[in-house]
Design brief:
By secondary structure, this protein is mostly helical. It has helices at residues 30-59, 76-90, 94-104, 106-147, 150-161, 167-194, 200-220, 233-243, 256-260, 263-292, 298-328, 334-356, 364-376, 388-392, 397-422, 429-453, 477-485; strands spanning 5-9, 14-18.
Length: 491
């Protein structure tokens, strides 16, 4: 065997590869195509989630928008139930989604998830008119069930397509679609509700765009570089040498006990849950806060409600290259980078929420600034807990995302319900103060746990250990074993 080649043992199969890491291909590649598709897929997914947040303002008050459409007599508790019902179904499919994405590939799951949810969005006005609140709740539960596959499938896609050196950048670009969808939906919902389409137009438009994306994904989405016919050989080699070539057709045994008892995984779950509490409290309740406390009409309400998510989307593209630069140039270790950006993304919003709690009712400009800060800076968490699953165990990233997202979205169910109990008079800023106190306290605890117990190195349970055959034993055993434990290592 030539001296310039080394034996690299993988626990599932043998392969030989040259010493060193292949050079990063220049230009726009297949991995960027998949990333953009994921970006627009999450754009649609979040538009379908948040469309009801603004629409419900018009649905319960016809004078707030086009008066020609039906008005529903829903009190604050009923509204909170409707807004939280999406997550009742959403948490159920999270863990199975990770396993299914790993076994059958994420492409088909994303296709069915977005396609079904989009079709149901188009049916929302009919369900509301025929079955009132109960029908809307049932429909939102089913939409939640379908969307439960999205994040685990997206993480599985990234674990197969995003090289370690580009993980922060490609992961941020993919998940930035969530904020882009939020911005678009919140910004145009008020205009649609006041137009001739009325509040039903919000659901028709978001559903139609989702169906269009599903068609594009069917033709251009792909499970992994090895299945992508148009990928350049050097790009495929670059991706697979960074991640470690894997046989995606072979079933991987999930180390459930190791995952559930891992301190870094527990810390990651707590950080994810804390983030979701604050994020979804603001997302679902901000339009109501804008209308009742800041006294904004529905058009200004929608535009101002979208502003924090526009800033969040924009800042994600600022934080991402900074994170990659600091980590790739070894100014920060990967774990220090994850903890730094997670702290920026949770503790600065915590301070903003505490400030928001003391804003008097007439100071709408200051309230908008603090809300924008609380939500916008939150994008730093994309470089914190959001990609930490892949850091810890790329082979199980989809399943791990399913676990943490399941726990986190229990918070998404509870948070609007807690708001419904706390807020008996939506125009009272003192009652809203307690909502902000609770979210700030949860942000503090979640990040503190991540700082203490979080890690960013590949865990021993990423792959089950296998004995090395005698034929592979040589003087380089210690070196090859070291390489196996760290697929991202390069000489």
């Amino acid at each position: 065997m030539p001296l310039e080649w080394c034996c690299c043992w993988r626990t599932r199969h043998h392969q030989y590869r040259p010493i060193g890491t292949p050079q990063q291909p220049s230009g726009f590649g297949a991995r960027h195509v998949q990333t953009l598709l994921l970006f627009f897929g999450l754009t649609v997914a979040y538009a379908l989630r948040v469309n009801l947040s603004v629409a419900i303002v018009a649905m319960v008050d016809r004078h707030a928008a086009n008066k020609d459409f039906e008005e529903f007599d829903w009190d604050e508790r009923t509204k909170s139930l409707i807004l939280s019902s999406f997550f009742w179904g959403y948490v159920v499919t999270q863990i199975p989604a990770g396993q299914l994405a790993q076994r059958f590939g994420p492409k088909i799951l994303l296709l069915l998830s977005v396609g079904i949810c989009s079709a149901l969005a188009v049916l929302t006005p009919v369900c509301a008119n025929v079955g009132n609140a109960k029908a809307v709740i049932a429909l939102r539960v089913i939409q939640g069930l379908s969307q439960g596959f999205i994040f685990p499938s997206t993480h599985t896609m990234l674990s197969r397509w995003a090289p370690a050196s580009e993980r922060g950048r490609l992961g941020t670009l993919s998940y930035a679609g969530a904020q882009f969808g939020t911005v678009l939906m919140l910004a145009i919902s008020g205009v649609l509700a006041s137009s001739s389409l009325g509040w039903p137009g919000i659901f028709y438009l978001s559903g139609a765009v989702g169906l269009i994306w599903s068609v594009a994904w069917f033709f251009y989405g792909c499970n992994s570089p090895s299945e992508y016919r148009g990928i350049a050989p050097e790009e495929r080699e670059f991706i697979e040498s960074s991640l470690g070539s894997q046989d995606h057709n072979r079933r991987i045994v999930t180390p459930w006990l190791a995952i559930f008892t891992s301190a870094p995984m527990i810390a990651l779950t707590i950080a994810h849950s804390a983030h979701n509490w604050g994020f979804w409290t603001l997302l679902t309740e901000m339009p109501t806060y804008m209308k009742e406390v800041l006294e904004k009409d529905i058009k200004k309400n929608a535009l101002l409600s979208s502003l924090p998510y526009l800033v969040m989307w924009m800042l994600s593209f600022v934080f991402s290259p900074i994170s990659d630069f600091l980590i790739n140039r070894n100014y920060l270790t990967r774990v220090a980078g994850r903890k730094l950006f997670n702290t920026i993304g949770l503790w600065i919003p915590m301070a903003a929420l505490l400030g928001l709690a003391f804003v008097p009712k007439g100071s709408s400009d200051l309230a908008v600034v603090l809300l924008t800060l609380a939500v916008g800076i939150n994008s730093a968490t994309y470089l914190g807990f959001q990609v930490n699953h892949i850091d810890l165990a790329p082979n199980h990233a989809g399943t791990m995302m399913g676990i943490t997202n399941c726990a986190a979205n229990v918070m998404s169910i509870i948070a609007p319900l807690i708001v419904g109990e706390v807020i008996t008079d939506a125009s009272d800023p003192i009652q809203w103060r307690w909502v902000f106190y609770i979210a700030a306290g949860i942000y503090f605890f979640g990040n503190l746990t991540f700082l203490i117990f979080g890690k960013a190195d590949i865990q021993s349970w990423n792959e089950p250990e296998s004995p090395i055959p005698h034929s592979q034993t040589n003087a380089n055993d210690s070196d090859t074993t070291r390489r196996a434990s760290n697929p991202n290592h390069s000489d």
